[in-house]
Structure formats: C-alpha cells, structure tokens
Amino acid sequence: MRNWTADDLDTIGATAEVDVAPLRPDGSLRPSTPIWIVRVGDDLYVRSYRGRRGSWFRHALQRHEGRIRIGALQRDVIFEEPDDADDRAIDEAYRTKYGRSGGGYVDAMVSPNARAATLRLVPRLTHERRTAVADNNEPSGAERMFGDFAPALVRFTDDVLFGQVWKRAELSPKERSLVTVASLTTSGNTEQLVYHLALAKRNGATEEELIEAITHLAFYAGWPKAMSAMAVAKQVFHGNQD
C-alpha cells in the first residue's frame, strides 16, 4: 500500500472519472482534465487515451506533480511511471469497471499505446516523506521534539501541515512563510519564530523583508509583540553579535 487511506482508496477507486490537473513548471495548476481511473489492490492508476502524446499526460511528466479532484475531495499527488505495474491486472480493471462504456473506448485504454502511458498516483506527502527517509535518516523537528510522546501530533505536523498545506500551489513557499511569521508575531508565539524565520530565509525571504514585516506589524499587532519578535529575529540572523 502506498499510504492512501482506506476511505480515499474506496472513494477514488469507485469514481467513474477523476479531474487531473498537472502542475506547470512554475508550480501553478493547469486546467483539469477528466480521466478514467482504476484501482488495482492498494494502487490507483490512470492512462492516457491518446498514449504518450496526450496533452495532459505530457504535462504530467513535466514535474510529475499535480492535483486530483472528485467533487469536494482534492488530493495533491505524484505521477509515477511504474516499472513494477501489472499491466494485465490494470487492463482487467479497465474492462471490469468500464466495460459498459463501449468497446471502442475500453479497447483503446488497454492497447499497447495506452499501456505505455500508464501513471500510478501516489499521495504527494507520502512520496516526499519516503524520499526524505531514503535521502536522510534524520528525524523531523516534530519527531525530535515529541517522538513517541505525541505521535499523532508528529504525524499531523509532518504529513498534514508540512506535507499538504505547505505544498499547496495557491501560495508560494515564501508567501506562506511571510504569513506564518506575521501570525506568530501577532499571536506572541515567539518560540516558534526561531524555526520559521530560518525557514522563511530558505524559502526566499530576505532578512530585510522579514525585519520590515515585523516593523510593519508593530502598528497592527502591538509594539511589545513586535519588539519581542524583533529580538528573536536578531538572534536568528546575527546570533550573539551586538
């Protein structure tokens, strides 16, 4: 199982069509295309009716990332070209699920042309956590802080907050960092600013922009909160230097 929840597998696997929207190179979403989808075991697969020359398929290969939607259900996904896929099982899944849709359409979806354009959908947060574990055995910050003490909070922090919310394409990472720094300053949660000011710099915000944001907040969040946040910023940016 590739870490789809049981509910997602049941819902997505049973739907007739899923709207697939690949990401553009700049991270924005392309318009969605309705695509047939099949479930084989605990995996979800889509194929291009037009083979590898299909426009949505070519777009999916640009970043191998995108979003699927079924009504109100949306999931960010990775488009994997599987080396270990059971083509016969996928063919049979298409015949079983869509056999009443007309032989011509189903025949096209189980043709060699469509088989060569098979993609496995993997939840993006699962793919990224798997890649991170493969590349770096260090635990996440939440794991270091709480480990087995609060495993649910660790999972929600890593998988939902940073795995899903921070990865949404509607705001850039820099914009999300600026919003987060502003929120933490306004609420007076300066202990979290140590991490988020450093993250903001990694996401493209400059020290000057962050200092200006905190200065601006002095007039909206309150002078004491801005002073406390600025003290943290000075420590993060310049350490113990006076």
How would you characterize the overall build of this protein?
The chain is of the alpha+beta class and 242 residues long. The chain folds into two domains: 6-130, Pnp Oxidase, Chain A, CATH 2.30.110.10; 139-238, AhpD-like. The chain is built from twelve helices and six strands. It has a six-stranded antiparallel barrel with strand order 1-2-3-6-5-4, surrounded by four helices. Strand 2 and strand 3 form a beta hairpin. Helix 9 (173-187) runs parallel beside helix 11 and helix 10 (193-202) crosses helix 12 (223-238). The longest helix has 16 residues, at 223-238. The radius of gyration is 22 Å and the shape is elongated. The termini are far apart.
**Derived structural class:** alpha+beta
Average of per-residue pLDDT values: 87
Write the CATH fold name of the largest domain.
Pnp Oxidase, Chain A
Number of beta strands? 6
Q: Return the CATH architecture of the largest domain.
A: Roll
Radius of gyration: 22 Å
Order of H and E elements: HEEEHEEHHHEHHHHHHH
- The CATH superfamily of the largest domain appears as Electron Transport, Fmn-binding Protein, Chain A
Q: Spans with pLDDT under 50 lasting ≥5 residues?
A: 126-136
* Largest pleated sheet: 6 strands, antiparallel, barrel
The termini sit apart by 54 Å
Task: Summarize the SSE layout with pairings.
Layout: H1 6-14, E1 17-22, E2 33-40, E3 43-47, H2 55-63, E4 65-70, E5 73-80, H3 87-98, H4 103-109, H5 112-115, E6 118-123, H6 124-135, H7 141-146, H8 151-161, H9 173-187, H10 193-202, H11 207-217, H12 223-238
